[in-house]
Design goal:
By secondary structure, this protein is an all-alpha fold. It has one domain. Helices cover about 55% and strands about 0% of the residues. A two-stranded parallel ribbon has the order 1-4. Strands 2-3 form a two-stranded antiparallel sheet. A hairpin with a 2-residue loop joins strand 2 and strand 3. The longest helix is centred in the last third of the chain and has 31 residues. It is globular and about 65 Å long. The two termini are about 35 Å apart. The N terminus is likely disordered. Keywords: Cytoplasm, Oxidoreductase. It catalyses: a hydroperoxide + L-cysteinyl-[protein] = S-hydroxy-L-cysteinyl-[protein] + an alcohol. It is found in: Cytoplasm.
Length: about 475
């Protein structure tokens, strides 16, 4: 990984510190915290995690549960911290208090009281006006003008046009500069996606937390899977093991067929994408979490009924598919961000690369496995439900590799994370380790962020040209 030009001090995760101290993950089973040894067979990984958390603790006085759960994958946590530290703490177009207020606005769209509360505290710590925390109506008009693009980025990013960008940049008392707006767009997508991670991993504030500075690190002594945690025995345990073997066999067959076949035609590729996109309409959670809007969240939300709507609905005029090759992160988004907000493009690119390539070559109880095909299927399925298509990818692989329960989980966490329940977390990959499920959530976080950024940055580019 490249080193950012700004030297980051130890404990660069201070942007994630919370006023409530250590957090608890309610998806632990049998009273056990997620373990640092879950699926991290690398030598020295536990020592690396310990060093990261110690640095953060020395710097911030506490380590929150987002860091604890991400710490199951220390390489990713390091990259995440550097990026978030730059977004919140380093030089940039926006003053610090407005950055935290934008984080509040973004998290509120998904009813994420955990992140809203955390950044309300941070907002006050950096000198923000307490009156603004009474609600969006008390914030300056310039920030309130972000509401529309915040709403679209959170739920239907494909609707963003250059006109939305133009409306924010037009000359006037409350106008944004292009550099300010790009920083705001990155912050909004960062916190929409982080809300997905918070709900996907079940991270919630401890109600009984008294604001102390102590933090109990994850237990390093257990490496059990959710299946064993939840006492899946008898036929249930055998079924869970069988799911692993079926996935291994399908990956092997797909790899063999890729070597033997001359290739699928572009027409067939397009057909398979449209089929997968249409089938995704049928993927929805059957049990809905009850997340009635709390007053400390509702006051930052306008038009609370506006939410994700399937990219393609039968009988409705669908927006055109976003062809990934027409506007790529590598060729377009990266350079645009780096030009207007130096160093952030580099750190985002590093973070995307780290999570996309992150592997321990394990699947459940199997070692020495090439998981690149599975990771790519998860990433591309997230982009698919947001209408983004890769011309060179065979979407038939998605159907082969992602079981229905995993698709339900992915779509819920990526599109309406506030509806995530413990049941849909436990129902997919029942014999996989907790860290492997956290790994899925890291892929969801970054794939979702990149998808929304691509739509937003394409609109900025069209405005500029």
């Amino acid at each position: 990984m490249e080193t950012p030009r700004h030297p980051l001090p130890p404990g660069a995760g201070r942007g994630e510190q919370g006023s409530g101290g250590c957090r608890r993950c309610p998806y632990r089973a049998a009273g056990r915290r997620l373990s640092t040894s879950d699926g991290i067979p690398q030598e020295g990984a536990e020592g690396s995690l310990r060093q990261l958390l110690i640095e953060a603790f020395i710097s911030a006085g506490r380590v929150d549960n987002v860091a604890m759960v991400m710490g199951l994958h220390p390489q990713y946590l390091s990259s995440f911290w550097k990026t978030q530290y730059l977004l919140l703490r380093m030089d940039g177009p926006l003053p610090y208090h407005k950055r935290h207020y934008i984080a509040i606005m973004a998290a509120a769209r998904h009813q994420c009281s955990y992140l809203v509360g955390l950044h309300m505290g941070e907002f006050l710590q950096v000198g923000g006006n307490p009156a603004w925390l009474q609600g969006l109506h008390c914030a300056p008009q310039k920030l309130r003008n972000l509401n529309e693009i915040n709403k679209l980025l959170a739920h239907r990013p494909w609707l963003i046009t250059k006109e939305h960008i133009e409306a924010l940049l037009k000359t006037g008392e409350h106008s944004w500069s292009l550099a300010e707006l790009v920083q705001a767009l990155v912050l909004l997508t960062h916190y929409h996606s982080l809300a997905s991670f918070v709900f996907g991993c079940g991270i919630n504030p401890e109600e009984e937390q008294d604001g102390g500075h102590s933090c109990q690190p994850p237990s390093p002594h257990s490496d059990s899977s959710p299946a064993s945690d939840d006492s899946v025995g008898g036929s249930g345990g055998r079924d869970a093991m069988r799911e692993v073997e079926v996935l291994m066999e399908r990956m092997k067959l797909l790899q063999e067929s890729q070597l033997e076949e001359e290739g699928v035609t572009q027409e067939e590729m397009a057909t398979r994408f449209e089929l997968e996109k249409t089938e995704s309409l049928l993927v929805a959670p059957t049990d809905i979490a009850d997340h009635s809007l709390q007053s400390n969240v509702l006051c930052f939300v306008e038009d609370p009924e506006f939410g994700y709507k399937d990219f393609t609905r039968r009988g409705e005029q669908a927006p055109p598919t976003f062809r990934a090759q027409d506007y790529t992160w590598e060729d377009h988004g990266y350079s645009l961000i780096n030009r207007l907000y130096p160093d952030v493009g580099q750190l985002l690119d590093e973070k995307f690369q780290v999570v996309y390539n992150l592997t321990y070559n394990t699947i459940a109880m199997h070692c020495g496995v090439d998981t690149s095909m599975l990771r790519r299927a998860i990433w591309n399925y997230v982009h698919c439900v947001f209408g983004i298509r890769y011309d060179d990818y065979d979407y038939g692989e998605v159907n082969q590799l992602l079981e229905r329960s995993l698709k339900i989980y992915i779509k819920t966490v990526a599109c309406y994370p506030e509806k995530t329940t413990k049941r849909i977390y436990t129902q997919f990959w029942r014999h996989f380790k907790h860290s492997e499920k956290v790994h899925v959530n890291l892929l969801l976080l970054e794939a979702r962020m990149q998808a929304a950024l691509l739509y937003a940055l394409r609109a900025v580019t069209r405005y500029m040209t």
